[in-house]
Amino acid sequence: MVNAVVVVEVVVQIVVDNLESILNFFKKQSFVIVSTLDKNKRIHSVAKGIAKIEDKKIYIMDLYRANTFNNLKRNPIISITAIDEEAFAGYTLKGKGKIIEKEKIKKEFLEEWEKRVIHRVSNRLIKNLKKETLRHHPEVKLPYPEYMIEFKIEEIIDLRPKYLS
User: Fold this and answer.
1) Number of separate domains in the chain
2) pLDDT in tens, 89-109
3) Contact between 38 and 67 (Cβ < 8 Å)
4) Predicted pLDDT at 141
5) What CATH number did the domain enclosing 48 receive?
6) Residue 145: partners with Cβ closer than 8 Å, 6 or more residues away
7) Most buried of 21, 43, 64, 99 (most Cβ within 10 A)?
8) What does the pLDDT average to over 9-35?
9) Cβ distance 90 to 66 under 8 Å?
10) The domain containing residue 18 runs over which residues?
């Protein structure tokens, strides 16, 4: 009986370590694809920025109070997808989203989101300077978030081909 307990503890530790690795993967992404279900149960997908990952939850800022907001009000089912083309890796996280109204967003989450936007703009500017090209920087004109999505992970899908897993 002791062997069974040891095996369960090892499996649980592997799952926890793997979750931390996956969350770190998402922390490195400049944006993710957020998918919700519309009123006709069709998939609605958009690019959104992660504000923070904390306590195994992902917090996503939404700048517009439109389709995603309305979809989440009707149905909290949501998925988040991120891909790293160079590493040939990616994940889809499935779960439930909860709307956090603008006035209830903690200051630290807004500050973290702002840092991530500044980092994205800075990286793009540096790349453009190295290439000696002028490009626009759409993040500079982004509106302030209208609300935040608190995402609780229920399922993880590894998008790597099986031979790389």
Assistant:
1) 1
2) 999 999 999 999 999 998 988
3) yes
4) 64
5) 2.30.110.10
6) 51, 61, 62, 63, 102, 105, 110, 113
7) 99
8) 75
9) no
10) 2-103+143-164
The overall pTM is greater than 0.90: no
Contact present, 94 and 79 (Cβ < 8 Å)? yes
Assess if residue 25 is contained within a domain.
yes
Sign, CA torsion 113/49/126/84: positive
Structure tokens at 40: 């006709």
- Residue 68: which pLDDT band, with cuts at 50, 70 and 90? very high
DSSP3 helix / strand / coil % (the chain, rounded to 5): 40, 35, 25
Residue 157: inside a domain: yes
**Mean pLDDT of the residues in the chain:** 82
Residue at 63 is within a domain: yes
User: Which tokens hold the place of 75?
Assistant: 């149905």
Q: Is residue 135 part of a domain?
A: no
132 token code pair: 């000696």
Sequence-ordered alpha helix ranges (H) in the chain: 2-27, 67-74, 107-131
More confident residue, 155 or 7: 155
